[in-house]
Amino acid sequence: MATICKRAWVQGSVQGVGFRYTTQHEAKARGLQGYARNLDDGSVEVLACGEEKEVEALIAWLKAGGPRSARVDKVLEEPYHGEDCPDGFTTG
């Protein structure tokens, strides 16, 4: 099975509503590595690495609105080819 990495930027009401922690829970349940971190502009950056179908499932979950407490207006995504994917999935 193919392993891929994608980076996504989630815009909307996604800070201060448990978005990163819920994303971490979803990512870990799918066996993914990466992070979810707040950005200064109020968005959240998500890096997800793992089996292609699991990465795509997480991206689809983000686009569907993520946790109920959040309001997702837009998700931008791109392939990620860097080498600094952390072990596990962090929220910082």
Mean pLDDT: 93
β-strand number? 5
Termini gap: 29 Å
CATH architecture type:
2-Layer Sandwich
What's the shape?
globular
Structural class: alpha+beta
Number of domains: 1
Give the strand order of the largest sheet, numbering strands 1, 2, ... along the chain.
4-1-3-2-5
Give the SSE string: EHEEHEE
CATH class: Alpha Beta
Describe this protein with a few key phrases:
single chain, alpha+beta, Alpha-Beta Plaits, 92 residues, 5-stranded mixed β-sheet
Secondary structure blueprint with pairings:
Blueprint: E1 3-13, H1 19-29, E2 33-38, E3 44-51, H2 52-63, E4 71-79, E5 89-90
3D architecture notes:
The protein is α+β, with helices and mostly antiparallel strands. It has a single domain (3-83), classed as Alpha-Beta Plaits (2-Layer Sandwich), CATH 3.30.70. The protein is built from 2 helices and 5 strands; from the N terminus they run βαββαββ. It has helices at 19-29, 52-63, and strands at 3-13, 33-38, 44-51, 71-79, 89-90. A 5-stranded mixed sheet has the order 4-1-3-2-5, covered by helices on one side. The longest helix is centred in the middle third of the chain and has 12 residues, at 52-63.
Short description:
The chain has two helices and five strands; from the N terminus they run E-H-E-E-H-E-E. The chain is α+β, with helices and mostly antiparallel strands.
